[in-house]
Amino acid sequence: MDLQYTIISRTGGSITKVMIGALLCVGLVLKSYGEEIVNSSFEGKDSAGWEVKATEGTEPPRLEVLEAKGDQAASSYVLRVDDSEYAGTDGAFDLSYQMPEEISGTIEISFKIRFLKEGVGSHLNADVRVSVREVADLTYVRFRTAPGRLSGVSYHDKERSEHIQSELSELRPEAWYLVTLRLDLDHGDYSWQVDNLENSDPTQHAGAKDIPLYNSSKVIKKFSLVSVLRGGVFEIDDLKVETGR
User: How many structural domains comprise the chain?
Assistant: First the structure.
C-alpha cells in the first residue's frame, strides 16, 4: 500500500511541511540504558522525529506546533493534529514517532493528549488508538467516541479475546490526559494508565496491568497514534520514552 508522509521541520522561524515518499528518521541521540531516550516537548517549535501518513488516495491531517498559551498541564508548545477538513471521508491516518534505535527490555512511554471541541457536528470524530510496535502492533489502548461525546478509554485483551471498556467511560473535551504505558518485552506483557491532569474525580482515571502483548517481539521501533475516523482535532505534548524501569 502506497503511503504519503508529511514531516514538519523548523526552517528559519516558520513551520514547513515536506512531502516525501519514504520513512524519515530524524537525528536523535540514544542514551545509555536506564536513562531517558526520547523527550519530545516541541520546545522552540521543534517537531523532529514526528511524521503522519494517510492511506492511499487520502490526504493526511494538518499538523502545526502552537504555543500552549498559559496552559499549566502542557509545555510551552504543543502539536495540534487538525483533521477537520477531511470529516466524512474514508481512510485512516497514522501519526508516529520513529525511535532512534531498536529498544528492548522494560520500557516506559508517556505522553499528554487532549481532544478539542472543533470536531465536526455533534460527533467529535476522535477515535485514536495508541500503538507501540516493531513491525506489528504490540499494544492496543483506544480513545473511543460515541455520537455527541467522547466515550472513554478501552483496551483489548488478547488472551480473553475481548474488548474491555475501562472505568474511564467519558473523556472531557479540552482536558489534558497523561497516558503512561509500561512494557516488559522479556515477560511479554504491558500495563497502561490514563489520568486527567485537571480533575481528581476517580472516574477520570483508569488503567490495567499485566496485559499480554500482541506478539513476541523483543524490540520496539515506533510509537503511533492511529485514527480510523476522519474529522477530529486533538493536541499532544511531552512524549517521553525511558528504559530500565
Answer: 1
